[in-house]
Amino acid sequence: VQLVESGGGLVQPGVSLRVSCKASGQFTFSWYDKSWFRQAPGKERELVARISSIGTRPIFADSVKGRFTMSRDESKNAIYLQMNSLKPEDTAVYYCNFKGQYAGMDYWGQGTQVTVSS
Fold first, then answer.
1. Backbone φ, ψ for residue 65 (5° rounding)
2. For 27-70, what is each residue's pLDDT tens digit?
3. How many angstroms separate the CA atoms of 2 and 64, rounded?
4. φ and ψ of 76, to 5 deg
5. Which residue, 60, 70, 75, 85, is CA-closest to 19?
6. Which of 54, 59, 79, 85 is deepest in the core (most CB within 10 A)?
7. What's the CA gap between 85 and 98, in Å, rounded?
8. Residue 91 pLDDT more than 70?
9. What residues are paired with 4 via a beta bridge?
């Protein structure tokens, strides 16, 4: 499975941005938990949002609840992270992750930089 993120950029505080992750390769989209993580400079990678393979309602980190939403489009093998009311502390490299239930079924994208600054 290959994952490619896109949509990052430099934005001002308060605006919205959507990042995308498109998966390709030989796999079954519905078999995987799908997540967005982020890593800010000098900090550990943290979970931002996740949709489980069987669940329909995503979970979110407390820091983004009410501002971020996550969606998926199985027809396009893609997931999205809609980020609203962005804050400088949202600045990070955002990564998508697909993780299945068996060993080895754990895939990461290369990341997309999101910078929130005035």
1. -60, 135
2. 999 999 999 999 999 999 999 999 998 867 899 999 999 999 99
3. 27
4. -110, 5
5. 70
6. 79
7. 26
8. yes
9. 22
